[in-house]
Amino acid sequence: MPDDPKAQRRSELGAFLRLRRERITPEDAGISRGTRRRTPGLRREEVAQLSGIGVAWYTWLEQGREINPSVQVLDAIARTLRLDRTERDHLYRLADIPSVPLDASRSRDRPPEQQTILDALTPLPASIVTARYDVLAFNDAYAALDPGLALLPPADRNVLWHLFTAEEHLQPLVEWEREISFMVAQLRTESGRRLGDPHWTGFIRRLSEASGRFAEIWARHEVASSVTRRKSFWTVDGDELSVIATGFAMASDPDTKMWIYTPDDPETERLLGRLVGRYRELGPAELLKQGARTGAAPL
After folding, report:
1. CA distance 110 to 99
2. Which residue in 14, 26, 143, 257 is deepest, having the highest Cβ count within 10 Å?
3. Nearest 5°: phi and psi at 117?
4. How far apart are CA 40 and CA 24, in angstroms?
5. Between β-strands 256-263 and 240-249, what pairing exists: parallel, antiparallel or unpaired?
6. Phi-psi region of 96 (alpha: psi -120 to 50; beta: other; left: phi over 0)
7. Which residues contact 295 (CB under 8 A, 6 or more apart)?
């Protein structure tokens, strides 16, 4: 009879924690070594104390007992054991937590080469976006396509939040209802892989409170997978751009994708090149102000 996968995962979790505990010296943790220490690295009770959790509870975790650690507890243990991002991801998977908290992912600096790649893709709009639609990085062409999003503070750059709360004349999508329904269905699929993650549940709750339309679409429980698709955007002047959106998974960060928009016709290619030039000359605020569509008062 094959081993119970859950029991095997708990056993792996215990071994992982023990080995990571043993590599941290008392001096690393600011603890006096003493003369009678036999345990390599930290003792269990020291990890528990430094993490602010009970000794018995941490011991059960290392022993593979059937307990359910919270995100906050795992974060505390990860800090004590000085886990890097890859180790933290592994810890979450072994503990059966569907995803690393997204806020931690968003706060870290992006590798500079990622921005270099995005910039080299101009005049093709390109961005790096999380499964929750947080925009982590973008190039000038992407900003020219949606300067309203580019003007937001980095922590507030979320595509869904922008689309559900921005004024109508700042909405860049031509087929808003079709595209937004598809995006919410994708969000529902990704959320199903992260049940119990407080950063996801909190985001969905806040957006539901901010937008009754989002709450209505979310309540349909529709799901969809991420696929290459044709999309149309309004420029600030009201020209229509037709592009093909293609997502590429980031090997260094599985929770994110690089999205590249390729012009679907020569006219889009011409208009996009001109739009990027204006963006670089004017910047996002002035581009919106001078736009025949976005500069007008909302209807």
Report:
1. 19
2. 143
3. -65, -45
4. 8
5. antiparallel
6. left
7. 236, 288, 289
